[in-house]
Design brief:
Shape: elongated
CATH topology of the largest domain: Transposase Inhibitor Protein From Tn5, Chain A, domain 1
Helix content: 25-40%
CATH class of the largest domain: Alpha Beta
Structural class: alpha+beta
CATH superfamily of the largest domain: Transposase Inhibitor Protein From Tn5, Chain A, domain 1
């Protein structure tokens, strides 16, 4: 019966996957891995005490459990708790939290606790991550964004009813032949990837994004983003944009939409200037007056409601600006209270772009869409962590948070019974996180959350601050 030896290696239910990973900082290895071998290696590492300098990222695990992001990642990969690819995706999420593109290529974080954070005994290389992202489509990325947005809405991240949309141009060093564009009129033309983001204008939290390609106009991308918002949000709202979105296609789309209204500044064409000069304005306060009118625009199937503002006290020095809207609201509220909140989206780009929206290393849309969508999960859990920080720490940029908290704190990891204990040494007391993370299993159970971490093989997690 010798011919029957090692038949277990041919088990059709055994999931074999060849992975490439960083063995050390400079050594890359390939091996065939299975969910069982991954679990065995992780448990072996946990059996020893691990010291590292990137242990601040472990503070994100409770926020993952509260948000439910592991279920999102499993749905995106189509795999279960013990499989390898969801852990690769989680590695991408935590790399985004560290604000470091290409971290696998520049330096490995092996033997510092980063790989264990993702439920892996190693750090996957660029090739392994590339293969994971490329086999997921743009539809997969959009589905992930919509599912994440629904979870965030349930947690109260989008309660204001005010939303801002804006194009965000990301520089790229791709070697592809593609049109060069200017990010502003005075800058030099360069290769860029154009994205369109939507955020809650009060909380500053992203709802979703689309990527504009050479075949996609601003109107088409904005309407695509509108459909994603309708699939994500259950409430009505006002969307504010800039004059780049003042097109017939966009205005027609919002005119027939029953969930969202839009408010857009109109470009000062000669026809519009004549209308603004003929309006009867009502003075609201010194140097500021408002008026209403209608405007017909080529290609728009309805008369546009115009809310115009006039600034200045001397007739020869008046300045005019008009806004098109589908909202039935007071001009004072729309122009002086609501629209100024649109600039929150610029603050979002300034504070959060380092998490994955400041550089595009490839123009492969499958890779870019899915990578940036996974970065939204990192941004969501970091936002939940920020809310627990005291001022001024909650106003840190994403890079500052990464440098000072995620990578700037020493500690060790050990296992006690069924619990992984992360100990921080010389943790800054002024950040005031101890009360939120000490005795964590009891706190999670009190909130109705299972304290077991599924990608860490159902170990619980607790923290010590020394």
């Amino acid at each position: 019966m010798a011919f029957k030896k090692k038949l277990h290696l041919l088990n059709p239910q055994k999931k074999l996957q060849e992975v490439e990973f960083h063995q050390t900082k400079r050594e890359v290895k390939k091996q065939t891995a299975t969910p069982i071998s991954i679990e065995r290696d992780v448990r072996e590492i946990l059996a020893h005490k691990v010291s590292g300098s990137n242990l601040g990222l472990w503070l994100l695990i409770p926020e993952h459990l509260r948000l439910g992001s592991w279920d999102l990642i499993k749905a995106w990969t189509g795999e279960n708790n013990n499989d390898i690819n969801p852990r690769f995706a989680l590695q991408l999420v935590h790399e985004a939290a560290l604000c470091m593109n290409g971290i696998r290529q520049k330096r490995s974080l092996c033997h510092q606790g980063f790989e264990l954070l993702n439920g892996l005994p190693f750090i996957a290389t660029d090739k392994s991550i590339h293969c994971l992202l490329e086999k997921h489509s743009i539809i997969d990325a959009k589905s992930l964004q919509i599912a994440l947005g629904k979870l965030r809405e349930a947690k109260g991240h989008y309660n204001s009813g005010l939303f801002a949309i804006d194009p965000h141009r990301i520089g790229t060093y791709s070697k592809r032949i593609m049109p060069a564009k200017k990010t502003n009129p005075k800058s030099k033309s360069k290769k860029v990837m154009q994205t369109f983001f939507c955020i809650d204008a009060i909380s500053g939290q992203p709802v979703g994004f689309t990527i504009g390609s050479s075949s996609s106009t601003a109107s088409r991308s904005t309407i695509e983003l509108l459909q994603m918002m309708k699939s994500t949000l259950s409430t009505d709202g006002l969307i504010m944009a800039d004059s780049e979105h003042a097109t017939a296609d966009i205005l027609n789309a919002f005119y027939t939409d029953k969930q969202f209204d839009i408010l857009i500044p109109m470009p000062n064409t000669q026809k519009l200037i004549e209308i603004m000069h003929s309006i009867d304005y009502q003075r609201k306060w010194a140097g500021y007056a408002l008026g209403k009118s209608t405007y017909t625009m080529n290609g728009v199937n309805f008369p546009i409601d115009l809310h115009s503002q006039r600034t200045g006290e001397i007739a020869d020095e008046y300045e005019y600006l008009s806004f098109a809207t589908t909202a039935k609201a007071d001009s004072v509220k729309l122009l002086t209270e609501d629209y100024p909140e649109r600039w929150t989206i610029e603050e979002f780009f300034n504070f959060e772009a380092a998490m994955g929206w400041n550089r595009a290393s490839t123009m492969n849309l499958n890779i870019r869409y899915n990578r940036m969508s996974l970065a939204l999960i990192a941004q969501a859990v970091c936002y939940e962590l920020r809310k627990k920080l005291s001022k001024p720490y909650k106003n840190w940029t994403a890079e500052h948070l990464s440098d000072s908290l995620f990578r700037g704190i020493e500690g060790d990891i050990r296992v006690k019974d069924d619990t992984i204990v992360v100990t921080y040494y010389n943790f800054p007391e002024q950040i005031h996180l101890q009360k939120h993370y000490e005795n964590l299993p009891e706190k999670l159970m009190a909130q109705g959350i299972d304290p077991r971490v599924p990608w860490l093989y159902n170990f619980k997690l607790d923290f010590r601050f020394k």
